[in-house]
């Protein structure tokens, strides 16, 4: 059984979908803890499913690195096999990425490497393209630049706004996330194949590396 930690910042809609999937009989993963960098509404989903929560407020630390050190300490207590960034609106320090990767994944509302960054949906609309998409990636030290684990195209329709387009991307994003977690749990996706030199150096002592 794959154990999963999920990190959020907001409402946790992807988290809710993953919790519901994990509650289904036969799903090969379970969520052991949900963490956040602020008091997030998504904690309510975790509580509804009886999953412990961890709050590590970013603003209480002088540096990103200090915040990352505390976040790692709080999450490592649960020794998860995988960490999922699910709407965490905070860049992780490079040292934390190196420690957790490649067992660290994220979703993005675009067909990477197209339109990385915080405004992927808006940028796709602004480019006037006919299709965008959703992606699930291994997190690396760049901005949405890690290896792609799964992705799917989503059409841009006439009259689409940022809101309407994003609302059509979200269900695809959730499904891809659930499918990816399932594939990691069953071994269909071997995250060890995505291990960087930095990740390999951390693997011997880090419980997050399978």
Automatic annotation (TrEMBL):
Q: Which Gene3D superfamilies match?
A: Formyl transferase, N-terminal domain
The Swiss-Prot or TrEMBL record annotates one GO molecular function as:
phosphoribosylglycinamide formyltransferase activity
Q: Per the UniProt record, which EC number(s) apply here?
A: 2.1.2.2
Q: Where is the Formyl transferase N-terminal domain?
A: 4-181
Q: Which residues are listed under the site Raises pKa of active site His?
A: 144
Pathway assignment reads: Purine metabolism; IMP biosynthesis via de novo pathway; N(2)-formyl-N(1)-(5-phospho-D-ribosyl)glycinamide from N(1)-(5-phospho-D-ribosyl)glycinamide (10-formyl THF route): step 1/1
- List the CDD domains hit by this protein, alphabetically: FMT_core_GART (cd08645)
Q: What is known about what this protein does?
A: Catalyzes the transfer of a formyl group from 10-formyltetrahydrofolate to 5-phospho-ribosyl-glycinamide (GAR), producing 5-phospho-ribosyl-N-formylglycinamide (FGAR) and tetrahydrofolate.
Question: What family does the Swiss-Prot or TrEMBL record give for this protein?
Answer: Belongs to the GART family.
Stated name of the protein: Phosphoribosylglycinamide formyltransferase
According to its UniProt entry, this protein's organism is Microbacterium lacticum
